[in-house]
Specification:
- By secondary structure, the chain is an alpha/beta fold.
- 50% of the residues lie in helices and 16% in strands.
- It has an eight-stranded mixed β-sheet, sandwiched between helices.
- α4 packs antiparallel against α10, α27 packs antiparallel against α29 (794-812) and α27 (758-775) packs parallel to α31.
Length: 857
């Protein structure tokens, strides 16, 4: 049923009648049958345009052979076999395959776990199947499905509109046009006989990836999955996707290591080629050195750490949609949020229904009920509160029309046949209703809305607001029965009817939660659409000290520089529209803050996109849920506070690997260069370097399970490549110092000073190098004194000690000789023990000095 875009005009899907469109798609106004939908799902597949095609497991394993370590190992194996070292070649090949299998298993598990979490918050859509509206996963949509649309919905596939009412769609991601476009069931006549502009979207077509701003409608699905315009663009979109702060940090470290690796490998090759005269041996050695310095385990460490963090957060009712957002979550130092559901209980109840004289009036409730009952546009808690307050029989009133809500007018209207006339009932922000009224009515008597009366109504509005009530105003007007259509213009010259006041009690625990956020180094800022009085009242109830307050009007009078000057001081913003929320986020980012934004409405979308980490809830509108990086299964600041620490733990364990790898590699630069210059033979055979690197990588697999110091979790942790460079420069030479001591030990004490004694030298440095870089994790992993003040996790201790035990025993085994190892005397191990204790102690001292001077990374 998918029709190529080039054939749209031929089958008249743009300007054809609804009957023609449905016929061409072999569907009906009642939708597809369940059986036919299943059949089409098998034919066209899941409606997932940007999801990469899942590779066969075998292909995923084979892809691992592209990694630098594996390529180098296989290269060494080929060279070894070519030069007659057959046993060495077999052992190296085994190492390569073992590396591939371990890496694949770890990453496969991590990615599967992450996918399961994301599946928990898949978007849903309302469709007609067998004449009944049902809710299904967006991924199960098929061509020919009939979809219901309303404000806040994502366009779930490429659609042809078949009915609409003031249906406005934001399609900026395709057209670049900031203002939403109205969509119709009938194509605009001025385009029907002319070609469709190349860069425009027909006014009867809505593409997947856009969103409904206001209004309602129905549409039939034309294309799904990769056949949608978004699907066709997905490859390019993924290529052009901007790097996150986390991506930039990982890339920065990787490039630093690659530069180090290339320079050292080249220097080592030249030195050994010139001094020892064996180009093949020099090449193999420099290649092994390069691989030993490459951060080939970093992708796996990052994936496993992020996946583990996501799983831990899911246990606390937080689902991570984008794994790399975990780092931004941990780095967040400002959290912006609306007060509803965060400071308050999100249990809105209708408390008062007052007429223009501030008296309880059942007629005001009736008008509010009619409006809430018949409106189909923007779903919200206030309408639910009206309908739950008291059941009224309003079905006798026939709905004629509707003018949906939007965030510019801030009102919405329904038109019904009521009391022998056609009546528009308008509900919205009181200040907007006041503008649209000429009169007021109480008990059937109508009077002029004078300035005095408006001031009286405004005073009542302020009084209710100061008591913490959220207030909406109601107005109406009557029209003759022959009036057929209504528009925004009819929301003028209205008759003021009264107020409805709602209460959303503050959460009793939120004051403690705010303090918990402050203890984590996170500043809370309130971005509310409510007026100043309501916002002040709620903030006071939860003991949130207002250090500064701005409303939307004041914000509009400030340029960006002026806003940036006050943004740190102001912590409460009220009467904001969507783009003003976004502007606040941008101003905070300009002051180098990592900003999180918690929102669940269509009006929150611009801010969710702008924030470093967008946070929404599982019952949010579709566009908010799709835009967010992190989804809360329960809207709660306490949940957020708990999960921030998980984000910091995840990043902390990644940084441990990076600090250790960077410092170790920098130290190896000096060691390898010096050894190449000073020794008449290679300090370690190429296969030994690769074996050393392989064992070291194995020892770090359990690093994601390690504990993180409470002090590290106490404040935001952004990427700091400069600090990592400094750490590398100061810690790296310490390892190099002990490498040179080992050289002296093997040369002068154990007389490994000739080519005949090369195996003794190689074995001695192999064991010292592996032991020092494996055990130093115990020092680097914490700012405290290892073991006395901070213990590593049991899995980390098991893997590191097991690897060392295996390496030491291997050199004594018959297989050790195959790799060029020999058994060393017991005196070596006694001296090595003293050297390792001295090395770790010196690293501890340098680390303490570094933290005092530069702070913790």
């Amino acid at each position: 049923m998918n029709i190529p875009l080039s054939q749209i005009r031929q089958v008249k899907l743009i300007d054809g009648s609804v009957k023609e469109i449905l016929k061409s798609l072999k569907t009906t106004t009642g939708g597809l049958s369940h059986l036919e939908a299943k059949r089409r799902l098998k034919i066209y597949g899941k409606n997932e345009p940007t999801k990469r095609k899942e590779k066969h497991l075998l292909l995923q394993v084979l892809a691992k052979f592209k990694e630098p370590l594996v390529i180098a190992l296989l290269g060494i194996a080929v060279f070894s076999y070519f030069f007659g070292e057959k046993i060495s070649a077999v052992l190296v090949a085994v190492m390569a395959f073992a590396s591939v299998i371990i890496s694949f298993i770890q990453e496969y598990r991590a990615n599967r776990d992450a996918e399961k979490l994301i599946d928990m918050v898949r978007s849903t859509v309302d469709v007609l199947r067998e004449k009944k509206i049902i809710t299904i996963s967006t991924s199960d949509l098929v061509p020919g499905d009939i979809v219901d649309l309303s404000a806040g919905d994502m366009i779930p596939a490429d659609l042809r509109i078949i009915s609409s009412k003031d249906l406005f769609v934001n399609q900026a991601s395709f057209t670049g046009e900031a203002f939403p476009e109205e969509k119709f069931a009938t194509h605009n006549a001025r385009l029907s006989d002319s070609p469709i502009p190349k860069d425009s979207i027909p006014d009867t077509i809505a593409w997947m990836g856009s969103s409904v701003v206001s209004g309602t409608g129905q549409a039939v699905v034309l294309y799904t999955g990769s056949s949608t315009e978004l699907g066709k663009m997905s490859t390019e979109l993924q290529k052009s996707e901007s790097l996150t702060a986390f991506d930039k940090g990982v890339l920065g470290f990787t490039m630093l290591m690659i530069k180090t690796m290339v320079i050292l490998a080249l220097v080592v090759f030249i030195i050994n080629a010139v001094s020892k005269g064996n180009l093949v041996e020099a090449f193999l050695f420099s290649l092994a050195v390069a691989v030993g310095l490459a951060p080939e385990m970093l992708p796996m460490e990052v994936t496993i750490n992020l996946s583990k963090g996501a799983i831990e957060m899911s246990k606390k009712e937080v689902i991570v949609k984008r794994l790399d957002s975990i780092q931004n979550f941990g780095a967040m130092d400002v959290l912006c949020t609306d007060k509803t559901g965060t400071l308050t209980q999100d249990q809105i109840v209708l408390v008062k229904h007052l007429n223009a004289l501030a008296r309880e009036d059942e007629d005001v409730l009736r008008f509010a009920y009619v409006n809430s009952y018949y409106q189909t546009g923007l779903r919200n808690m206030l309408d639910k509160a009206v309908l739950n307050f008291k059941h009224l029989a309003v079905t006798r009133y026939k709905k004629i029309d509707e003018i949906p809500f939007d965030f510019v007018r801030r009102v919405m209207s329904v038109i019904v046949a009521m009391d022998h006339t056609r009546r528009i009932v308008t509900k919205g922000a009181p200040e907007e209703i006041f503008k649209r009224c000429d009169c007021y009515e109480v008990n059937g008597k109508i009077g002029p809305l004078t300035k005095t009366m408006i001031a009286r109504l405004a005073k009542e509005y302020d009084l209710l607001s100061s008591q913490g009530f959220r207030v909406l105003a109601l107005a109406y007007n009557n029209y003759t029965p022959d009036k057929k259509s209504f528009s925004v213009k009819d929301e003028e010259g209205l008759i003021f009817k009264g107020f409805v006041a709602f209460l959303d009690p503050p959460k009793p625990t939120v004051a403690n939660t705010i303090r918990a956020l402050e203890d984590l180094g996170i500043t809370l800022k309130i971005l509310s659409g409510d007026n100043e009085l309501v916002t002040r009242k709620i903030c006071g109830d939860v003991n949130l000290v207002i250090t500064g307050l701005l409303n939307g009007e004041q914000l509009d009078k400030m340029n960006d520089k002026q806003l940036e000057r006050v943004i740190d001081r102001v912590n409460v913003f009220c009467r904001l529209h969507p783009l003003q929320k976004q502007r606040v986020i941008r101003a905070l980012q300009a002051k180098k803050h990592a900003v999180g934004f918690l929102g669940d409405g269509i009006n929150d979308t611009p801010a969710l996109k702008a924030a470093d980490v967008g946070i929404s809830v599982n019952n949010a509108v579709g566009i908010a849920k799709e835009t967010a990086d992190i989804i809360l299964l329960r809207k709660s600041l306490k949940v957020l506070a708990d999960c921030v620490t998980e984000g910091r733990k995840t990043f902390g364990n990644i940084i441990k690997y990076i600090k250790m790898g960077a410092s170790s590699n920098f130290g190896n630069m000096f060691s390898m260069t010096g050894a190449s210059l000073l020794l008449p033979f290679l300090p370690m055979r190429p296969i030994q370097i690769l074996f050393n690197n392989f064992l070291y990588d194995i020892s770090q697999i359990s690093l994601p399970t390690d504990k993180v110091d409470e002090e590290y979790l106490s404040k935001p942790r952004p990427w700091n490549i400069d600090a990592i460079k400094k750490f590398m420069v100061f810690i790296g030479p310490v390892s190099s110092l002990f490498d040179y001591l080992t050289f002296a030990l093997m040369w002068f004490v154990f007389r490994a000073d000739t080519v005949a004694q090369q195996a003794v030298f190689n074995t001695g440095w192999f064991l010292e190098s592996l032991a020092s870089q494996t055990l130093v994790i115990y020092v680097i992993r914490t700012n405290k004194i290892p073991f006395l003040q901070s213990w590593p996790s049991k899995p980390l201790m098991i893997t590191t000690l097991s690897v060392l035990a295996f390496a030491f025993l291997f050199t004594f085994s018959p297989w050790g000789g195959v790799l060029g190892f020999v058994a060393l005397p017991w005196q070596y191990f006694a001296i090595l023990g003293v050297m390792l204790v001295s090395y770790l102690s010196l690293v501890q001292l340098v680390k303490n000095w570094f933290i005092k001077k530069y702070g913790n990374i």
